[in-house]
Design goal:
Two copies of one chain form a homodimer.
Chain A: H1 15-29, H2 37-44, H3 48-55, H4 58-70, H5 85-103, H6 106-120, H7 125-151, H8 160-172, H9 175-180, H10 189-207
Chain A binds a DNA duplex through residues 1, 16, 36-38, 41, 45-50, 52-53, 57-58.
DNA sequence: ACCGAACCGTACCGTACGGTACGCCTCGTC
DNA sequence: GACGAGGCGTACCGTACGGTACGGTTCGGT
């Protein structure tokens, strides 16, 4: 059964509905199993019938949860005027730091795990959503900065997309896949800062004008 | 119930057992669901009872499948004598090419999906196995080459582990996570060659002596 | 005060799947 | 040829979970 309304535009959600999604997310974060309709209903103190009325079916609930939570990920915007090499470097480094912090967080790991599992079956929605709000959102934020850097004569890059993908690689490296595969020692703040700094240095070494 | 014998050392497997594991793998590759004991039994033309006798339980079967298949991944070894800059570059580039080819293959994607899902529940085995035969195997093959490059005065690196992780990032970038999340347009051979070449160039730009 | 909508709690149904039991067949060994 | 081990096919059981039904309660509107 199709969900009655699939709010691709979010925030047609009442507070109570957000409570439900929070419950689902909580269940998801501490152990992907346990995320059952009965479990969500119990944790949110609501009835299963309500869940089905609001979200159509299990998949609708999952989609709503992922969509709503993924949309929360916000990177700090960077104002592109008054761009000199130092502010650009600071911006990129902070970018990497924020990104690594989000990536290694419980919620991000749980969401990506769910989406990856989901992409294994035929239904592809969750993977697309997470990709959109994850990698692609990062790209949308990052590429204008790179282009601004190029226009300011600070960076030498032909294709912003390719440069972004390299930046992605320099920042994320093997961190994400290791977390997804169950290595639960999250890097510390200091570690993240260090890695972001090195990513920035490396990126400038490769693309600095 | 625990599997009767958990052959952490592989290849205590008869041909018939390998047939079974192949069936499981096939089921896994075309759509992670459908990978059910009944499905495997049907596909391998064997009885469920035999499956349970051989592998203990579903988890044992999955583990055996992943372990056996993951062990198949072989990178071409690199002889570290007579190392000049050109052969090192060729080795690293081929390394990247092979790695991207494996990573984007159906089997690798399916295996990693399964392992990631599995790591979401409390049982962590599969994640560890894939990590060991994936990233870690790559590291074990790669780091000696990097150290040889350093000893030959071709590379400047303090910590091989850190250098390897950067190499990993330069090669893999966002490719793996995108495949895992369901983006099924696999990069072509030409695309992979291009990316491996750029990864090699970038790596030398960062670590070349 | 009354009514209806929304919702909670719980009981219930159907099915899919992990795991077991059992009858039959095949084949190697004596 | 007799026999037992190993294995195939199938029927079966228990349970977990997605999904539905329904009675009881709260609450806002009239």
């Amino acid at each position: 059964m199709a969900p009655p309304n699939l709010f691709i535009d979010d925030e047609a959600l009442t507070d109570r509905q957000k409570d439900v999604l929070n419950a689902a997310l909580g269940l998801l974060v501490d152990g992907g199993d346990g995320l059952t309709m009965t479990g969500v209903a119990r944790r949110a103190s609501c009835s299963k019938e309500t869940l089905y009325k609001w979200f159509g079916d299990r998949d609708g609930l999952l989609t709503a949860t992922v969509q709503w939570q993924a949309a929360k990920v916000r990177m700090v915007p960077v104002d592109r005027q008054t761009l000199d090499r130092r502010t650009l470097a600071i911006a990129l480094e902070k970018f990497g730091r924020d990104w690594l912090t989000v990536l290694t967080g419980d919620i991000s790991v749980a969401l990506n795990r769910l989406a990856v599992s989901h992409a294994g079956q035929e239904k592809r929605n969750l993977g697309a959503i997470v990709l959109e709000h994850g990698r692609n959102a990062m790209a949308r934020r990052c590429k204008p900065v790179l282009e601004a850097g190029r226009d300011a004569g600070l960076l030498t890059l032909d294709d912003p997309e390719k440069a972004f993908r390299t930046f992605f690689g320099l920042v994320v490296r093997d961190t994400q896949i290791r977390m997804l595969l169950g290595e639960h020692e999250r890097p510390s703040m200091e570690q993240i800062s260090l890695e972001a700094r090195q990513a920035r240095e490396h990126f400038f070494a490769l693309y600095g004008a």
